[in-house]
Each structure stands twice: as C-alpha cells, then as structure tokens.
Amino acid sequence: MVLYFLRRDYDALLEQIQQGQTKMREIGTDIGESCRQSGETTHDNFPYEEAIRQQQMASTRTRDLIRVKEHARIVQVTPGPAASIGKVVTYKDTGNGETHTLKIGSHMTFGSNTDDVVAYNAPLAKIFIGKKAGDECHGKIAGVTHEFLILEVSTPTP
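Above: the chain's sequence. Below: its structure in token form.
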C-alpha cells in the first residue's frame, strides 16, 4: 500500500516522528524520577503510573507514524488541467447550488492551514481526481449520491 505525500506534508510527518521520539525520551526521564521519589514503582505511585500511560500513548502514536512513513511516497503536483494531489478544485454542488473550494491533499496533512484540505483518499477527493473544469461528476458520500460541476482546477502557488 503506497501512501502519497506532498513534500511539505512528508517533512511534517518526519517532524512529528522526531517530536514523538523526543517526548518518549522525556517521559522515560520522568519515569526514572518517579521511581527515585518513591520506593513503590507500580502501586500508589501516581506520577509513575501516569508517566507509563503517557509513554504508551506516545509510543503507539510514534510507531503508527513510522509505519506510515514506511509506505510513504513523495509526489509532485502534476501539471495540466486535471484535478490531482496538490490541486485546488472549485466546484458546485448541483443538488443545493452551493459553491465550494478545496485542496486535494496528502494522505495526512499537518499544520494550521488544513481546514480546506481534503485527503486524496477521501470520498469527495476521489470523485474529483482526474476531472477538469466543466466536467460533471457524481459519487457517494456517506451513502448519499451527490452531483457536482467542476468550475475550476488550479495549481496553488507554493
């Protein structure tokens, strides 16, 4: 299974892994400190028990991100008029007449500017990939069929 990433999101994935590894080292220090403060390491030692819980959560999250990295492939935004990863799509929902804009993003996106980004493997993005301005398309989202008109496909500036 290949998971596609734009360079920016791949770099952010690597940073998240690094932060997770750093957090696990810090928590390990906390575990050691909690053992020095109390002769009891597993019973009635809340700092120790909490540090162990935090270590397990950080370890699981970091391990999951490493698995994603193992399957990640960096892709470039492809030139041309068709919708693809990294492109911005403006579309009209012909059912309700509303117009929306979204960016087709990586498998995972990080950061604060992700409100209008939809992962390429999300149902809505799958409907648009390969389509061009003027194309009518339809697909199911949460079991409901929607129809769309692609108004514009553009490549955002970096």
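The mean pLDDT is 90.
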